[in-house]
Design a protein that fits this description.
alpha+beta, 193 residues, globular, 2 domains, seven-stranded mixed sheet, Double Stranded RNA Binding Domain, Arc Repressor Mutant, subunit A
């Protein structure tokens, strides 16, 4: 069975019964992915030849596959639950107990500015937070607060690049791609560690 997705400006893609999403647009790269579940809900982890390129949260496997496809439109996405079983278990353990650390290679993709922001996020200790303005100052661009927020929103590697640790200047929670409730739950988990 094949389910057609809306066609992009160039090319056409399909989701097939064997859980492959293919696209005729863009360079061909294969990303293997698998899904798992934690107390925070369903998640998807995707791996390229260079490491983890995505950890996404969602409501269902189908929703997560569509999100992955939108973020990597030129890639062939291959469901590989058996081969990624250990990786899924490691990510689930990290989500449930963040102080265990995630000692897996990451394939971090973004602009040089985004990578600076994401490194600054990775430097925030578990159980603490920083404001968008704090991050902008740390990377040497104190007026780039909105750009920092946009970089957080563009992050494809949830929890390993902890954009959930970034809050407003007044200490209030702000948006989180995977929901403010999930952001609060992650912060609560980390505070208890």
């Amino acid at each position: 069975m094949t389910i057609a997705l809306p066609a992009p400006a160039i090319g056409r893609e399909t989701i097939t019964a064997d859980a492959r999403i293919t696209s005729t647009a863009g360079p061909r790269e294969t990303l293997n992915f698998a899904t798992g579940a934690t107390s925070l809900g369903t998640f998807l982890v995707a791996r390229s030849n260079n490491g983890i390129c995505a950890i996404l949260f969602g409501g269902s496997r189908g929703e997560l596959m569509c999100d992955l496809h939108e973020r990597f439109p030129g890639a062939e996405l291959v469901a590989n639950e058996d081969d990624l079983q250990t990786l899924v278990a490691d990510v689930a353990e990290f989500i449930e107990a963040p102080t265990t650390g995630l000692r897996l290679p990451l394939d971090i993709r973004g602009t040089s500015f985004q990578k600076k922001v994401w490194q600054a996020l990775r430097d925030i200790p578990v159980g603490t937070t920083a404001s968008y303005a704090d991050i902008a100052r740390r990377i040497g661009t104190p007026k780039a607060v909105r750009a920092v927020a946009q970089a957080c929103a563009a992050n494809t590697i949830a929890v390993a690049i902890p954009c959930h640790r970034v809050i407003k200047n007044d200490g209030a929670l702000s948006g989180y791609r995977w929901g403010v409730d999930r952001k609060q739950a992650l912060l609560d988990k980390e505070a208890r560690q």
